[in-house]
Amino acid sequence: MPINRYRGNELIINTDSQYNDLFKKRGITRAILFSFKKFKNLRYKDLTGVTIENYRWKSTDRFYKLSEQYYGDSVYWWIIAFFNNTPLETDVKVGQNLLIPTPLERILEILDI
After folding, report:
1. Which residues contact 7 (CB under 8 A, 6 or more apart)?
2. What are phi and psi of 58, to 5 degrees?
3. Is residue 66 within 8 Å of residue 97, measured between CB atoms?
4. What span, in angstroms and rounded, lies between the C-alpha atoms of 42 and 83?
5. Is the pLDDT assigned to residue 36 strictly greater than 80?
6. pLDDT for 112
7. Residue 35 near residue 8 (C-beta atoms within 8 A)
8. CA 19 – CA 2 distance, rounded (Å)
């Protein structure tokens, strides 16, 4: 069973007036957001027991697809994005080499998830 990355995160309710036009367009009065704990910066010594696999990004690739391929579940896409410091797929160029950390269980342990 996957570990939800939102587990234990505080909910923040945004009613800031600077977003009133956007809220009105969407027919809402507020936005509910998740707060996130900041992951620790990984150091080489933290990666004991981790294997790094190289993957060359193709135009049809998506983080969730790589997550399914390497971890067996698409919900862990954010690990690949975090590990490569590329929060959005639009930050990845075709032909760019990505580093895929495995095994998943060890990465979750290192990130204290």
Report:
1. none
2. -110, 165
3. no
4. 9
5. no
6. 81
7. no
8. 34
